[in-house]
Amino acid sequence: MFSVSSLKDEENEITKSASVSSKSTSKTALWEEEKMGKQLLLWRLRRCMLLLCVCMFAVSGCSADKKEEASKQESFSEAEEKKIRIGISFDSFVIERWLRDRDVFVATAQNLGAEVNVQNANGDVAEQVSQIEYLIDKKMDVITIVAIDAGALSDVVRKAQNAGIRVICYDRLIRNAGADLYISFDNRMVGTLMGQALAASLPDGGEIFQIQGSSSDYNVDQVREGFEEALKGSGITIAYTTFCDNWLAELAFDAVSEGLKKNGGKVDGIMCGNDDLAGQAIRALTENKMAGKIPVVAQDAELSACQRIVEGTQTMTVYKSVDKEASAAAKLAVALAKGEDITDASSQIPVTETIDDGSARIPYYALEPIAVTKENMDEVIIDGGFHLREDVYLNID
Ligand code: BGC
């Protein structure tokens, strides 16, 4: 194969010998000169043709590259287009657990190739409705909702479903909406565990306060049912009960103060809707020199609650593995987006139960809550990787 540089060398050779010959004046020399000239012309022609070929090759190569690039672009945007899109609307991130829910949900969905759009309604129902509408406009495949108000979202859920979007009730049931899935811990069981713990701490019965969470959160009704059922026959009576709307912890402080006033300064135990409320209830007990003297039960296994348990001011909490709930929800969201039948026994996470949402029975994926006391703190919370030993025992020598 010849190259441009070898042709160039050959031409140089010819030019060189022609210029040497031009010094001769004889006939033969003239004829030689003419021959050299023709040869030189021929080589120049050959070189031009070769350069032309190289250019044509380069141009055609370029356009092939361009075609390849364009088709790559096409398949990239097709993949982008086909990427599963999941929207998730949170009530708020005030309570410790929800950030963990968010992080695990997003990471799991992304690992499965989905894209997640996270919205935070900051406890405002109207804001949550408009965020869900935004997610509908953005053409999500699935919308996951942590409902602020169980009774206020049925219309927007139907709107999403009419647009071909599947809807998941995350942790809290949305009533009368016919959602595609409800995933949560068995909230009735959460209440049962709280009731059993109080009954065990008060074997002779007593008068307790029931400081519940938000009245618009359906979990609160389910927890109450389980709790009151578990108290039956225990000799425990509920001397004071109230709700803390929007799960506002300050309200728990006021509630304990008010309950004590109404009940002549007497209380034998307190049930709180979650650990955040328990923190404030215990603050009120501290002000009344009662902290650590009466049992307090709650849920979530927040770090501060685990610390209070090992320190002795809280009796128990209910641990709900947020990691399990969020990762199962993300996997089920992706399965729903792919049009899989999640209720089929052969599916990756088969959803075998159903729950009545008030208008229909919808698929229900239930997780099991675990009661945590001083006795099993290490085994469940520390060995289970929920909190670090040095954090839980921070204030203990
Ligand atoms: C959840 C609790 C949480 C509470 C406040 C409830 O619906 O089940 O785990 O502490 O909401 O956010």
Supply database-style keywords:
397 residues; alpha/beta; Rossmann fold; 7-stranded mixed beta sheet; 4-stranded parallel beta sheet; 51% helix; binds beta-D-glucopyranose
Structure summarized in a few sentences:
The chain is built from 13 helices and 13 strands. The chain is of the alpha/beta class and 397 residues long. It has a 7-stranded mixed beta sheet, sandwiched between helices. A 4-stranded parallel beta sheet has the order 7-6-8-9, sandwiched between helices. A two-stranded antiparallel sheet has the order 10-13.
**In CATH, what is the class of the largest domain?**
Alpha Beta
Order of H and E elements: HHEHEHEHEEHEHEHEHEHEHEEEHH
CATH homology group of the largest domain: Response regulator
Bound molecules: beta-D-glucopyranose
- Terminal Cα span: 85 Å
The mean pLDDT is: 88
- CATH topology name of the largest domain, in short, is Rossmann fold
Q: What's the count of strands?
A: 13
Number of helices: 13
- Biggest sheet descriptor: 7 strands, mixed
Radius of gyration: 38 Å
Class from secondary-structure proportions: alpha/beta
Low-confidence stretches: 1-33
CATH architecture of the largest domain: 3-Layer(aba) Sandwich
Strand share of the residues? 15-25%
Tell me the count of domains. 3
